Amino acid sequence: MSEVEIVAVQKTYEGASRPALKDVSFTVRDSEFVSLLGPSGCGKTTLLRIVAGLETHDSGRVILDGSDMSRASPRERDIAFVFQNYALYPHFSVAENIALGLRLRKVPSDEIDRRVRKTAEMLDIVPYLDRQPRSLSGGQRQRVALARALVRNPKVFLLDEPLSNLDALLRDKTRGELKLLFKKVQGTVIYVTHDQIEAMTLSDRIVVLKDGVIQQIGTPEEIYREPANTFVAVFIGMPPMNLLKRELCGALGIMPDHAELKDVDFSCGLRPEDVKVSAESRAGWTPCAVRLCEPTGAVTLLTLECGDIVLSCSTTLPWPARQKEAWISCDLSRLHFFAPDGARIAISRRSAPTPA
After folding, report:
1. Distance (Å, rounded) from C-alpha 129 to C-alpha 144?
2. Rounded CA gap, 313 and 274, in Å?
3. What does residue 225 show for φ and ψ, rounded to 5 degrees?
4. Which of 129, 155, 303, 343 could form a disulfide with 292 if both were Cys (CB 3.0 to 4.6 A apart)?
5. pLDDT score at 355
6. Are 71 and 118 in contact (CB under 8 A)?
7. 3-state SS, residue 265
8. Taking 50 as the threshold, does the pLDDT of residue 169 lie above it?
């Protein structure tokens, strides 16, 4: 496999009021799985198409294995692209769809048959090789599209929201299969998604985009535990992080005593799972009203009103359906702090007060 380096890539569409991509730079290491994550319109698919050579960019470079391929054709880049809509030929059999790229490259027939069979076995689609795509389920079609990419043994795999057309149960199953598959083939992968669960569970690293600008690059753990700004903090995590203005923190008893925050305007962030909640009154805990209770099975999501403050929290404790009051205590060691412009404020955890 190969390394991909994106260097200061810029792209503005004609007539657009802002760039689709602005000074985007990062590296995907050999055999690394990197997800491009962000809301619709953030530029992630545009960037994927630029890497593939399907879209031109205004400036910057796309480097594959040390060679500048910015103006090379898609064929010269030796990259496999798995599209959101599968892009299978309906009048071809599954085997013919998988083999098409090899035939265009004049690979010998016996070698094509061997590689198609081997790839079909890997993806458990051998029984469907003689069928046409219209007779397959969505999950089976997705496997065929993956097989067509895998059979070529390309330098890089590019996947553009490949699971978005699947129902929730099949998406979860296929996501696990994808992770195992790319570990097995040790592929270099760039994966586009707007689904944070996909990005968190599949990726070695995540590139978070907003309005064509990189907000943060890091491992799933780094991005979740230390979001670079309020956009990342709220975008990653379900339910989203609670954000409170400084003046509201005192009402919850979570005014921090950090030297870095003295005389500084800030917002305080708290993950829902870091809010301790009780259905019984406890000394020193803050009383709240239960606005909404959403049981999901192992976890119950609560929306609480504490005066003028609305908080989300999650609990694994059984929650009485008719319980309209709650008492909370916030884990002060897990607080996040953000400047007025949204940027993360780094603080020394050594000075963090002991949670109540």
Report:
1. 9
2. 8
3. -80, -30
4. 303
5. 41
6. no
7. coil
8. yes
**Residues whose CB falls within 8 Å of the CB of residue 141, separated by 6 or more in sequence, listed in order:** 86, 88, 133
Burial class (CB in 10 A: 0-12, 13-18, 19+), 20: buried
CA angle, residues 241, 189, 86, in degrees to nearest 5: 95
**Confidence (pTM):** 0.90
Q: What is the pLDDT of residues 102-132, one digit of tens each?
A: 998 899 999 999 999 999 998 889 999 999 9
**Architecture of domain 4-230 in this structure:** 3-Layer(aba) Sandwich (3.40)
Q: CATH top-level class for 240-351?
A: mainly beta
| Structure-token pair, residue 46 | 């545009």
Location of structure tokens 């959101």: 84
Helix/strand/coil for 335:
coil
Question: Could you identify the residue written with the tokens 């829902």?
Answer: 272
- Cα 192 from Cα 175, distance rounded (Å): 13
- Residue from 135, 217, 145 nearest 178 by CA: 145
Find out whether 35 and 207 touch, Cβ atoms under 8 Å: yes
Cα–Cα distance, 34 to 27 (Å, whole number): 9
Q: What is the gyration radius of the CA atoms in the chain, in angstroms?
A: 24
And the tokens for 58?
């205004």
In this structure, are strands 156-160 and 79-82 parallel, antiparallel, or unpaired? parallel
Pair of tokens at residue 66 = 């040390």
Domain boundaries defined on the chain: 4-230, 240-351
* Residue 132: C-alpha distances to residues 17, 90, 143, 279 (Å): 44, 6, 13, 57
If you ran DSSP here, which 8-state letter would residue 69 be given? -
Q: Which amino acid, residue 19?
A: P
Q: Cβ distance 289 to 305 under 8 Å?
A: yes
Residue whose tokens read 């569970």: 201
